[in-house]
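Reviewers of the previous submission asked for a worked example of the structure-prediction workflow described in the proposal, so we include one complete record here. The input consisted solely of the amino acid sequence. No template or homolog information was supplied to the procedure at any stage.
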Amino acid sequence: MYFLGIDWANDKHDLCLLDADGKVVKEMTIQQSLSGFQQLERLVLRYGVDNVKLNIERSDGLLVDWIMAQGWALHITPTIVVARRRPRRSKSDPTDAYLLAYLLRLQDPDCRLLSRSSAIVLHLRELVRALDHAVEELRRLANRLRYIVLQYFPNATKLFTRIDHLITLAFLEHYPTPEAARKLTPHHAQALPQAASLLPLRPYPATARDSQSAYAGRHRTRRLYRAGERAGAHRAPVRPHHRAARKTSRRCFPDASRSRLVESLSRWTRTAHARTDAGMGR
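From that input alone, the workflow returned the following structure tokens.
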């Protein structure tokens, strides 16, 4: 029996083949390409498909999909396990490939056989993984957007429940500065929901009378108009070190590069959630 450790990387993969006695039989590097995968295939066929077990650190990617398509026995050892078993200050791709083969030869309990999944499961797995990445990127961009707005237009963050809601992005795109918010009229407020699906506003009353009116159910566009008016009239003074942030905002928001990206991610995330729920039969 032979044990093949594969250290995964973006552009290339290091291989180490051990025999049953733990002796290194073959060490090589293959590229992340069809020719590299064919080199791996020739190596496995030379020693027999049924006589070679493979061990790698991750369960996804082109290489893993290609190996599973060949029907080979593939084991997965998590990266954190390899890091714990690795000798200190000896991190290198060839040594990691050797360690993966060594752990598989010892039948380490952390080396788990990767089972083949159906096409539906694979589709859902990739969809959920892409959804997680999109949500993470959306959160990162929303935090950056909030930080920029807080530097020069802090009241704008109090108008809506979330900075990444489409109505918030539409407001910032049309009124990127406190001066622009002063020009907000009821007619303009009514046009904002047409630019984005209207989402709940955060209550922002200035007086007790305004508070009672807001909770009495006044039209949302009227509340938006009043909130925008207050944001322009009672804005925080701009300190000298905020001038650069204001210049940055005027450059960012008119072309809507950042806000449009957040908007696109927000729309895609909702679509992915719906498709995932549909695939799971919810």
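Residues 53 and 73 are 6 Å apart (CA to CA). We consider this example representative of the routine output the project will generate in years two and three.
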